[in-house]
Amino acid sequence: MEGKSLEERVTLVENELRGLPDRIGTLETQVTAVVLQVSELREEMTSMRGEMTAMRGDMTSLRDEMTSMRGDMTSLRGEMTSVRGEMTSMRDELRKEIKDGDDETRRLMRVLHEDLVARIALIDRG
Fold first, then answer.
1. How far apart are CA 104 and CA 106, in angstroms?
2. Which H helix or E strand runs over 5?
3. On the CB side of 108, how many CA atoms lie within 13 Å of its CA?
């Protein structure tokens, strides 16, 4: 530019300045779009923070429920063990009663058989 006259240099600067408002307008539009995107991102992050907090609360609630269920399952297991013991005891008692009843039936059958044999012997003797 040193070799150019002042008039040429002023004309060159004027030509450059003519496109400047359009370029600034475009830049303003781009900056506005970026600011809008940042604002939307901030809103989304705030919303996500709330959702994460809610999810954390749900997870805590779920953990508490599972802990409660674990206690219930442990209690149920104890009750089932107790019922199993009672059923085993009842089975053993029932088996004993059946065996005792069978033994009594056999004893009575022997008595009846001996009685029948004695009656038949009496009949044979006349």
1. 5
2. none
3. 6
Give percent above pLDDT 70 in the chain. Answer: 98
Quick check: 20 pLDDT over 70? yes
In contact, 49 and 57? CB cutoff 8 Å = no
> What does the block give as tokens for 94?
């029932």
Residue at 53: amino acid letter: T
Q: Which tens digits make up the pLDDT trace of 79-123? A: 999 999 999 999 999 999 999 999 999 999 999 999 999 999 999
d(CA 14, CA 12): 5
Domain ranges of the chain: 1-93
Per the listing, tokens 């954390």 go with 56
